[in-house]
Amino acid sequence: FGSSRREWRAFDLLAPSLELPIIDGGSQYDFSIKPDEKVTMDMLFTIYNDHLEGTPYDQTVGVAAGPNGNPNRYSVKSDQMPESAQGYGFERKIAITTCSYVFIGQARDWLPAEIGTKLWYGADDPSTTCYVPIYAGVTEVPEAWSIGDRRSFDTDSAWWAFNFVNNWAQLRWDAMYEEIHAERAKYMDQFMAEEADVDAEAARLYEESPEKAAAYLTEYTNNAMNTVFEGWWDFAWKLVGKYYDGMCLEEDGSRTTLGMTNPDFVAASGIGETMIADMEAIYGSTSAEEETPEEPAATEAPAATEAPAATEAPAQEPADTASTGGMSTGGVVAIVVIVVIVIAAVVYFSKKRGKESK
Prior knowledge:
single chain, 3-stranded antiparallel beta sheet, 9 helices
């Protein structure tokens, strides 16, 4: 179901009215479908973000999603798979953490090809990347976006900035995922807002000289990519200092415990089981306070003909049955208080004399 599941999901997001059936990987859907409404760039970004949320195959729920709803799954060796699952695996969602890069091509035929053709490019996982605009007419891109060795962590590489943020987010996906999307929106919303003006200026320059338009678009594209590269590393270090040890460090310096937000995982985690077992072993129940104390054995009342020896009844029931050498607890406390007061007084007057003698 790997490829067919992703294909079904993309088509279903674009045309839910079709109610497409589920097919296995050996079958095929039609090459194309008609969307229910006109497709926008935001709709395409949403498709690339998808982890099958809200479907029976949702990867943000279930025990495998961990305590915080992490949709990413790592490969399982065949000898680790249950016999019943041999030949199968976790669902293959559209956004996968091992992705190298993602892009969306945008073609506008009313503009010259160098201007009207644009690539929205994102490094690493589509759901945690930030897309940058690259016009077809550019002659170069920043070096940071041209390098990246997966075997060697490199802060000079844009790919590593996005890969790092994605991996850090898996510590607290429930909290950081929304923050990542808010951060990337700052850049992408600006790029979208600038698009009409950039296109118009490039078209004006193109009429004078295609070379001038290319130089303008190259400068704009490089500035945009450098801004995102530098900003994303800053954002990465911000996340490191904000989310750690299962907590969130607030701006005022206070810490918020985030807890576990995936009830499926909590229910299956066995939390408290060992403690409950020990309590039952010690007390026979889960709480010592629940134990009903045994009543003392009944004593036989003396015969009526046997009068007990006369004793003098105490004038008053003592307030505290605990005693120390015949002295009540209240008496001991009173003596201790008096001793402390005397010691404090001695220390105070000693210091006072010392000051007067100087």
